[in-house]
Amino acid sequence: MEQYDILVIGGGSGGLAVAERAAGHGARVVVFDPKPLGGTCVNEGCVPKKLTWYAAHHMSHARHAHEFGVDVEINGLRYADLAQRRRAFLHMLNDYWSGYLERLGVEYVAERAELVDARTVSAGGKDYRGERVVVATGGEPIVPRMPGHELGATSDDFFQWEDLPQSIAIIGAGYIGLEMAGMLRSFGVDVTVIAMEDRVLEMFDPMVSHVLERHMEEQGITRHLGATVSALSGTPGAVTVHAGEGQSFGPFERVLWAVGRRPKTRDIGLEAAGVEIHPNHTIPVDEWQETNVPGVFALGDIVGKGPLTPVAIAAGRRLADRWFAPERNPVPVDYGQIPTVTFTHPPTGGVGMTEPQAVQRFGDSVRVYETEYGGLARAFAKGDIAPVAMKLICAGDDERVVGIHMVGDGVDEMLQGFAVAVRMGATKRDFDLTIPIHPTSAEELVTLKVPRPGQAEPVANAA
Fold first, then answer.
1. Which one of 57, 224, 242, 438 is the catalytic residue?
2. What are the domain boundaries of the chain?
3. Number of C-alpha atoms within 13 angstroms, CB side, residue 34?
4. Which fold has domain 149-259?
5. What is the percent of the chain with per-residue pLDDT over 70, rounded to a whole number?
6. 66 catalytic, yes or no?
7. 18 SS3 class
């Protein structure tokens, strides 16, 4: 039986990160994954999503070009062309990772792997033994088991479509559902969002939810919130969505499930190795990603904390440095300081605490600075235009910034720098003393003046 320093189950962002960094330090590593390398991010998530978002973004801006006197004629979307280009780009990334691992000396086994014990993995009829095992198998879309569930597709399926429907119902108002809703609506699809939540993006700051919903209203996206879906009926191409209290919506040409993702921790031998698994299928780990079994580690979506590509990458790299380059003084991932962006239309961004979270922790010392404005990008638009909105949440006598939340074009790019400031413990005075860049949207965050007390349940559009 061959011996390795690390056995990595999963060739997604986290698994590749730990393999790459460990191999760079001279470790002998093997990666197991039956699917193309890159995981969800490369194949069904971040990358194809952002490529599609750019197409929708260009269409949206083209529609508003006339406001500045620019004559633009939109003849439609060659979606099959977009799908083909996107697929070719993803294949290029798969090939890159295969070649890169080979150059690093990392062995890649394109087989399903299963733990035999805490040091042994079986794949393709062969056993592999390692000093450490890293489980990074990622997640998969949830499809609720209910009558007619097979009539709905998932976000994974979305990226296999060669054409677009005339109408679609998206079940779920989290970030995946709303990203899909914004892109499809920009492409001209008749979009309806149906969700059991009382507000969109309910895990985000309430301001983000309220302002984004105003944008959805302006774009013509129909919402049915507080509706618990109980069944789908009909036939492909004419699907009706049924909810509680006798409600029904549709028919729709297609239905998309966007009710969340679950960790892929079943049937990979975790029980055989004695690894603890929570009832929600996540794996509990300590601050250095170690499970209850010494030498077995888990990272990425399967640990149930910060299911985002950069989080998995950071965890993987820091883990490898801790093992093979302790002189770099690696630190564990701080899951409380993760900047997050949703590529809705327009994007939303946030870092740190929401307003209710800050009030729960810091009480009456919370002060909130916020603004809503039209922005020069829509200065010549007519009618009721949904705003750009920003919120700064401060706590304590020194008004340390503990949360930033934004909705509007460009916030996805501007948040990164402000996330550094929050990480470093910047105060409101630090923001005030920073010279603004004018005219930009980002300057709003360093020119906010009048605070209000924090509220446990802020009212909608309190600015």
1. 438
2. 2-141+263-328, 149-259, 346-453
3. 8
4. FAD/NAD(P)-binding domain (3.50.50)
5. 99
6. no
7. helix
